[in-house]
Amino acid sequence: YRLYEILDVPAESSTPEGRSSLDASPGGQSQDESVSVKEGTGNMNAEVLAIRDAAHDTRALLLRHIDGSFHFSPGQWVDVSLPNFEERRVFSIASAPRDDGTFMLATRIRSNSEFKQKLAVLKAGNALKVSKPMGEFTIPEKEARPIVLLAGGIGITPFRSMLEQALLSGDTRSFYLFYSNHTPDSTAFFRELKDWSADAENFHFIPTVTRSGKFEWGGERGRITVPLIKKYLADDMQAAVYYIAGPPEMVTALRSVLLEGGIAESHIIFEEFTGY
């Protein structure tokens, strides 16, 4: 598979995306990115290896854990703190687990966040602290139903981790990624997701854009809807399991759409990104 090797990319200015502590709720997880890490989870040192653009106003950071092994499950998140700065943020890990302790985070760049502004000036070789990986927004190994991933904006990060792991491990389950963004150039990781879907018959990538404009686009348009999902899943729609990640208003809307479309609530798992 044509996985990006970020280590080969020259370092630039950077930044990754905030999320927060788990608030256990039926079927889902909600994050408030200002909440600090749970007591007892510990802090570990990580080094910035490289930074690249993942889309317009979106940066990806490749980090290396330098305090030993770093084990996580795709879909989990870490709490991040910067030197000489009290505020902390939570970020979904955007890459598959690797034996060398490297992992990727990604974020939308926002000028109204002091944390992100400080994160934006980090360079290769700089250090920060991360918590142990946490969260239960993961896909069980025994899950045999078609897996439908519904993402909005930077909500793609946990799904990128899941999909990269599936491709690397030779997972033969059916994956459908519906990914909504305003425009093509705001669609993070677009090229590699498109490449992955071309390489793997069991991975179906369905990007959609919600704004019109002077840009070329041959994909779907509009929000993610039941008719759009049914167009690609057909008879598998009712049997599939649905994972939703994105801004709270999008997650709420998609849950309602799925329930109204006859999807069982037990088939819907979600995670909200606050501080979008």
Helix/strand order: EEEEEEHEEHEHEEHEHE
Give the helix/strand class: alpha/beta
Number of helical segments with 4 or more residues? 5
Low-confidence stretches: 6-26, 29-40
Distance between the first and last residues' Cα: 31 Å
What's the rounded overall pLDDT mean? 83
Strand order of the largest sheet: 1-13-12-8-9-10-11
Report the biggest beta sheet as strand number plus sense, adding barrel if it closes. Answer: 7 strands, parallel
| Strand-residue proportion | 25-35%
Radius of gyration: 18 Å
Judging from the principal axes of the Cα atoms, what is the shape? globular
Helix content: 10-25%
Number of E-state strands: 13
General description of the model:
It is built from five helices and 13 strands. By secondary structure, the protein is of the alpha/beta class. The strands form two sheets. It has a seven-stranded parallel beta sheet with strand order 1-13-12-8-9-10-11, sandwiched between helices. Strands 5-4-7-2-3-6 form a six-stranded antiparallel beta sheet, with no helix packed on it. A hairpin with a 2-residue loop joins β2 (43-55) and β3. The chain is globular, with a radius of gyration of 18 Å.
